Amino acid sequence: MARTGLLCLGALLAMGGGAGALPRSQLLPFGAGRGDRALPDGDDESSEALSLAGPLPFYETRLGQLYVGTNGIISTQDFPRETQYVDDDFPTDFPAIAPFLADIDTGGGRGKIYYRQDDSREVLDRAARLIWAGFPDAAGFVPHRAFVATWEDVGAYEEVTRNSEPSEQRNTFQAVLAYTDSDAYAVFLYPDDGLQFFGTRPKESYNVNLELPARVGFSRGDFQRREGPYYSATSSEQSVKNLYQTSNSGIPGVWVFHIGSSSQLKNIVPATVGQRPSASFEGRLSRTPESAAVDQNVLEVEYPDSNLDYAESFYNGNEDDFEYSPVEPTEPAPETRSGDPSNLDDRLDFHEPRHSGAILDSDLEAALLDPSPSRPPLYSELDSDLVFPELPFLELPSPASSVSEGNDRTPSLPLVYESPIEAVTAVLLYHPDLQETPSPPEEDGGVPSETEALPVYPDGEVILESFPDNAPPFNHRRRVVGVDEDIGFNPDVFTYSAANVETCERHHGHCSQHAFCTDYSTGFCCHCQAKFYGNGRHCLPEGAAHRLNGKVSGNLLAGQTPVRFSDIDMNAYIVGNDGRAYTAISHIPQLAARALMPLAAIGGLFGWLFALEKPGYENGFSIAGAQFTHNVEATFYPGEEKVSVQQTAEGLDAENHLSIKTDIQGRVPSVPEDSTVHIMPYKEIYHYSDSVVTSTSYREYSLTSRSLNQTFSYRLVQNITYQSCPHGRHRWVVPAAQQLTVDRIFALYNEEERVLRYAVTNQIGSLTQDDSAPTTLNPCYDGTHSCDTTARCQAGSGLDYTCECTAGYWGDGKECTDINECAEGISRCSRESVCVNTVGSYRCECPSGFQLAADRASCLAVAPPSDPCAEGTHTCAPVDRARCVHHGGGSFSCMCLPGYAGDGHNCTDVDECAEGRCHPAADCFNSPGSFSCRCRDGYEGDGFRCSPVTTQRLTRCEHERLYANQQGSPIPGGPHVPQCDSQGNYRPLQCHGSTGECWCVDGDGREVAGSRRPPGASPPPCGAPEPTQRPQTMCERWRQSLLEHYGGSPRDDQYVPQCDALGNFSPLQCHGNSGYCWCVDQKGHEVQGTRSEPGVPPPCLPSVAPPTVRPSPRPDVVPPSAGTFLLYAQGQQIGYLPLNGTRLNKEAAKTLLSLHGSIVVGIDFDCREKMLYWTDVAGRTISRASLEPGAEPETVINTGLISPEGLTIDHLRQTMFWTDSGLDKIESARLDGSERRVLFATDLVNPRAITVDPIRGNLYWTDWNREAPKIETSTVTGEHRRILVNKDIGLPNGLTFDPFSKRICWADAGTKKLECALPDGTGRRTIQSNLNYPFSLVGYADHFYHTDWRRDGVIAVNKDNGAFTGEYLPEQRTHLYGITAVHPYCPGGRK
Length: 1391
Fold this sequence. Notes:
The protein is mainly beta and about 1400 residues long. The strands form 24 sheets. The chain has an eleven-stranded mixed beta barrel with strand order 25-26-27-37-36-33-34-35-29-30-31. Strand 20 (about 480), helix 9 (about 505) and strand 21 form a beta-alpha-beta unit. The protein is globular and about 100 Å long. The protein starts with a helix and ends in a 9-residue tail after the last strand. It comes from Gekko japonicus. It is found in: Secreted, Extracellular space, Extracellular matrix, Basement membrane. Keywords: Basement membrane, Calcium, Cell adhesion, Disulfide bond, EGF-like domain, Extracellular matrix, Glycoprotein, Repeat, Secreted, Signal. This is Nidogen-2.
């Protein structure tokens, strides 16, 4: 009985390796013949939504549709951009079922992806059997429906270079979702030879790691990703390798999971049958005594891989380099079951009760699954083809040990090994304390009898050794390991230790961010990634244009005249894909410049450095990188003048520009002023040895003038020293000599600019090239291609070639445009760092108090210096009277707050009433640090502006004139009576009626500085100067502003105004591709009644009357419910999101107002009049609408706007304030649009958000200036403007004054932080530092709510602990802009 059971076990476990793994034929049937749908070929494809025949339980939810993605993943929603989840950590932030999440590419015929729903009994029965194997207790589960997705022979995405061949590795795997209405299970199948690659390399791999292991697991998709439920089955490359060798179901390559239930299922439940590795492995696995008692993830155990060439992966060389001990094959065990032994169904016995998932006779089942740590190795459970023989240098366990009576241990089996390297591994791991050996195999190939027992291992004596941390291939760190030497195997002396050498783990920061790090036996080397070139420590994009900056100093004797210069600028521009190099030395003395014109070696260095490479040859940057020293000695003939030049390259700066310092010393022949220098084409041979490049050559040049044409020469000796990497040198051998061919050489001096210029074109290649023989080179190698200067030229067969934009650019290769990685959200900058776009790349910067980490993407906090202001050790006046300003270190200063005067240490209240701050017709009331104004009886206004109740509304100029006249006759030296024009505006020229002084004023009546003239003098010219060229028209400015708002590339459904050749509005305007068109007047305003339906454009010529058309749908307001709610702007609509307490009531969300053709950005609410206000950057208007049922929008301002964005309402003063990023202005007006005035029009770059504190009368706004972002404040009348915050901020998008905490708070898309501070800027506190891309912000009760462009939703954040408490994602996924909270009451307060 025991013998039969053991043979059954062998039949099952034969799938554990080699030919015994899960055969591909045992996948569930798939393909076109089964009615499968096929995913389109490509790199990042997604299926259409597949509606399920019945709901699929997933966690505690029920799914109604599925999407299948190229990248080994299934979801309930369409997938985001690939870099947001393929190259990111698991879990995903959307629902995911991932059998093999990696960067997969089926383009070019590299495999197919199939998927289908299936309710056939054949498929459901097979799925049920697999589920029962993993969950014996679920034997009653019978699925009603199944979903089958198969990835067949798919490849990994790779960047093929001209020196590499496409990979032939292909993967095949299958996911089966079997379910009823109440339960669901997932089965992942990985067949024999189905996993040939185990991970993929991130497309934007700005780190030293080579590849990212595939992810296998499940994610429910909560917003707060790392707090939501998820299950990950893999975490390293080794765990991926083990997918097809091991199992959690007892069947190698078959993995089963319980993924959904109608009862509470808090997380995925994996099967546990066969979760431990086979006993032979347990006897030889690397575990420390501490870890031996801990349950180990079966996928994290390092198993032999029958599909891998271990010698290659271990030694990175040929298998012949390794000496194997002799091995002999074993006879296979006889089959005891009928049928095909490779058939999965034949291996599962479903007619007898099963408890373990494996097919075992009951007598042996408990013994075979005994988890006792003293169980001896049973390697033959993997049924391999190799047996490890007796070795003279190793004592194996005794062949004839027996156990005492009553010992029910399993009989021993012969040690069996998968491959020679496995046998070697067993030797390396063998512990010398083991004294007993297993019995040798029987001659007939059978298994031992029951009387042959296993050896007994006393407890505590088996100490299992571990691999060294850096021993490949069992390496969890993602880096390359290479060994240079040929190592013959000697078990007595074999070691691999990195203790005494520098390794990638500690020193990978020396590599370029575009390089990977490789460990060798003597140290590490850096190697540039695909599409980049260099020496590994410095890498630049192939095909890109490069820039160089530096300084030049010199002490020359030009002829007989000494010339000195110091630290003058040198710049160079190199076109990398055709070898052209341009060098310019600025502000150089004329005598020196002319004398140095023949010495083209100064600029020729850059020609060698970035020469166009012919196949098999490398330019200087590929060898020396960006740190080297170039020494030149030139001897001129016939005068034998000698000059030396030393050029020191100091690396790449943050913009990837090469920095170089040049020093010139010696004597050069002078060059007459009227002479032209011609330098003949030449060739130089460069000799390469260890870290040194040398060259000796002669060059000729001629001087040509009206009466002179002479040829001269000089001898040039060059020596270039650099630091090479010796550890992997034999793999990247540079030819001992290379020839640099230089032609099209120019040396010019511009006297007006005082600039010396060199231009050279360079190619580097073979010494033996015969120029006289006709040769045909591919255009990529001779620079005659037509690729863009920022594109890689890739040679094909013959003269064929293709152009590919280099890294950091996009286009067709003929034309390439810079990619803004920051705006596109594809940078590697961490959330705490700030992304700064550069041409062709980007860089990450850290805020104050942080520094870049070694990965150049994340920020590390540095110990803050002593801050007396924060520590409270300053001597300033109390915080309600003064603010402490920290200047770094222990330095600080004190500044009295507005409303107080003094030196900051002692501050006294300012009596603003004595200063006449209020309107003459108002009473003033002073208070500590502030004051208030109230119009007298008979007047109305806010106290700062008062007008007679019965007086018709006057302009500001007319008001001032009225009140000045009310004071009586002018008194000499008395108040000035302003002069107003017929429209009530200030006349540009103002003169005092009694003193005779005259001056110019602006539109607000403010005096223009420097324009005042004394009595009797000619009045100043106050008219606007005539423009020298036509300024931009309103149509052109509006168009430019919208294009910038759209990021330069508007979508088809976004409106862009059409202007004619003179900049006027085209009479006919149309909205993208929607088909809606209308006529406009000369100011761009829509002519009412002309808006047409799609396909019927109205005739808008002045001579044709507008047609009668159907009216547009009424944009009526859908009234909201009572209570507190949020309103948010989303392009062409305003959405309504009610609050239940502070919780988002997402089920009741709806569209409040539809505004076709608009882009609503800023939004706020007047709590007094119950009126909603918003800005529209498409219509260039500010509008409002009542929240009463059926109310229609009303435009209150429609002139003088370009890009109105931020908007805020002061309900006490019934005033609105807004920012215009097109005009760089901040303006205010009454809520009906009257009394409009410009508050600020200077020192603004990109004003964005704005908010008001009506109680204190303060205004706050952000300036989204990338170079100097800031938050400013002033009074609501535009006085006392000052910067509130300008440190440690990046892109302050959202801003709000929180009436509950009385603090000013902002959300920063650059620093990813939500912060608050007191109204004076002190008391700064971070609420949340892990935002995505916030746009607008509002506070209510103990929560903040912000719109987010990365999530396209509304996010809720707790004010006290910063926790994310909710998220609302509208069904229409487009950007959300402004957000405001609407209360059933106005915040309390008094003026």
